[in-house]
């Protein structure tokens, strides 16, 4: 009997079983429209998450705009285009009153509230988002 008692103590006290979660919630990325309509808080959870994906942005100077020492940068895809504008102003040491115009692929200027991921999906070139910048209006 002493050997059995030794065996039981070496195992330690038994732990209570882990209870199952109150309900099974699939990850937010795999939600179907019917699941979202049944529980809208799941949809909110999906959109509250920040996207950690980074995209490569290539800056190109036009006209008399100063040239950056480094023209390739990685930024979060979930950022708004306003963050790109502010970043470029910091890199160029421009004040808010200094004129700065940004264009995508030498064609158009996106709205400041546009999401960078959407711009990359639609207008990427070789996996980069090419942003031309200048101190006077050039296109569009």
TrEMBL record:
Write out the entry's keywords from A to Z: Autophagy, Isopeptide bond, Membrane, Protein transport, Transport, Ubl conjugation pathway
Q: Could you state a single Gene Ontology molecular function term?
A: Atg8-family ligase activity
| Compartment(s) | Preautophagosomal structure membrane
Positions with biased composition (Polar residues): 1-13
Q: How does it sit in the membrane?
A: Peripheral membrane protein
Q: Where is this region: Disordered?
A: 1-37
Q: What does the entry give for GO biological process? A: autophagosome assembly; autophagosome maturation; autophagy of mitochondrion; glycophagy; piecemeal microautophagy of the nucleus; protein transport
Feature: compositional bias, Pro residues = 14-25
* SUBUNIT field: Forms a conjugate with ATG5.
Similarity remark: Belongs to the ATG12 family.
Q: So what does this one do?
A: Ubiquitin-like protein involved in cytoplasm to vacuole transport (Cvt), autophagy vesicles formation, mitophagy, and nucleophagy.
Which protein are we looking at? Ubiquitin-like protein ATG12
Tell me what organism the protein belongs to.
Answer: Rhizophagus irregularis (strain DAOM 197198w) (Glomus intraradices)
């Amino acid at each position: 009997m002493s050997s059995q008692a030794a065996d039981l103590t070496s195992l330690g006290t038994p732990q209570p079983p882990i209870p199952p979660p109150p309900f099974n919630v699939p990850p937010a990325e795999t939600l179907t429209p019917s699941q979202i309509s049944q529980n809208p808080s799941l949809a909110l959870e999906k959109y509250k998450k920040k996207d950690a994906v980074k995209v490569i942005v290539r800056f190109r100077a036009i006209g008399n705009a100063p040239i950056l020492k480094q023209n390739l940068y990685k930024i979060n895809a979930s950022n708004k285009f306003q963050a790109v504008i502010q970043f470029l102003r910091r890199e160029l040491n421009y004040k808010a009153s200094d004129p700065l115009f940004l264009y995508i692929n030498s064609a158009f200027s996106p709205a400041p509230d546009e999401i960078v991921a959407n711009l990359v999906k639609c207008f990427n070139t070789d996996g980069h988002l090419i942003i031309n910048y200048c101190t006077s209006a050039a296109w569009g």
